[in-house]
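Box 3.1. Reading complex inputs
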Amino acid sequence: MRKCTILLVVLLVCSFGYSQSIDTEYVRKNANSPGGRADLNAMKKAFDIMRDMDCKSGLSWYSQGAMHNTPSVINGPNQLCQGFQGHDKMPNLPFGWDNCTHEGGNPNSSFNFLLWHRMYIWHLEKVVRELSGVSDFALPYWDYTEQDDRKMPELLTQKEESLYTKARLSSLNNGQEICSEQFDEMKRQMKELSEITEFQTFSKNLNNNPHGVMHNYIGGGFPGDESSCNAETMYNEIYQQKDMSGLMGQVQSAGFDPVFWLHHSKIDYIWQQWMNSENGKKPSEDSVLKHVWPYNFIQPDGSKITYTMQEVYDIVFNLDYTYQGIEKSTYLASRESSPTILKSNVQEKTTKTLIWEHTVGKTIADKTFVHEISTDLNKKTKSTFRNINATSKVLDFDVVVYKEPKDFYTVYIRYEGEKDSYIGTMSFFGVAHEHGIKKHSIAEKGVKLNFSFDISDELKDIQKPFSIYIKKHGNGTAKVTIENLKLFTYNKE
Ligand SMILES: [Cu+2]
């Protein structure tokens, strides 16, 4: 009898726990929708409180931004956080500061890009829920790849309010739309992203565009053909320095611009959309456990929390929120072993094979650049793809830069006499920072970067030779050199 009672209690507790996790599902909304505007108001209320807190308090606006990254040196006595003069001057940083994944020196940083930012904004969301008192608050997203959402959400442009900063591209703060050159390239990329079938390639490409190009754009644009693109420098209040890019344009100040959270909510949304699609895959549990990264955050009650990689894996792939734009049915189906889960929950297990490698050694000096793939390499491509059934084909670029370009480059496959096929974007947000280079300049030998583009659909006719076509967006002087090209295949094990 007693055993039965215990069993009943256990069952009740379990079922309660289960139904609770489904019931407390928060919905992240488009920031320009009525529900999203209500959430932005809650966020403004919380940021009023957070901006008034002492910067060393973990819940403060300053500390939450500093968890992403901080400047190495701040120019003059820090007006926003007394006593903190940059991380070079402070060997023991407060808990959780400077943990973002934009750090090239560590091979695990790029793997953790989407996972870390998901955990970071999820904690801020919980903090805002607590401080605003709005119990169903969910972090809105700025849906800037959609025609109707080309303007920055209005509440962020209200001067002197807690979601505002002057250190942004002025056209956005003045309520103008994202310029066409930027918008069209993000739109083009959305389709390309949806076609990728491998997690790390997806993550790297999402990191470049829209993530990187949007950071640079909000932080001061690029010299484009329209005035609303045009590059600007400004006073960056985190560095306390004139003639710089705005907060979002530098890794070290990006987390301090409130639009950062809406931007990363959108990036997280794109990731979740892909995960729920036919092509989406989660990284294998093993690979997550292997790519160790610090996960240190602040709970809504102000206490500190550190997660193991196992805990990260369990949280990141079992969310307590969904997105307004994702059909609820699809989303829930992916949690309950229906046929959808078989696709979106597939753990990735693939092997990477090098098909050919080819030295280029050319600098992109003009607005456009064409590089022909030699007949020999084309022959190799041809014989390889006749024999193997690769799940995906990836073209890899080794690139060197000597200064951090604010321009971005779009890359295409060209078959003679045909329309060019877009394969991806090279952008450079954070490269100077990622390589441990101080004061925004890069050493003489430059910085080596790697870009990987999925060309499974674009490499359509292996009988014909193709070339690489690159288009530069912007008139900046920072040079980009293509060192190497490699063709890889990924095959299911
Ligand atoms: Cu970012």
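In summary: The two ends are 52 Å apart (CA to CA).
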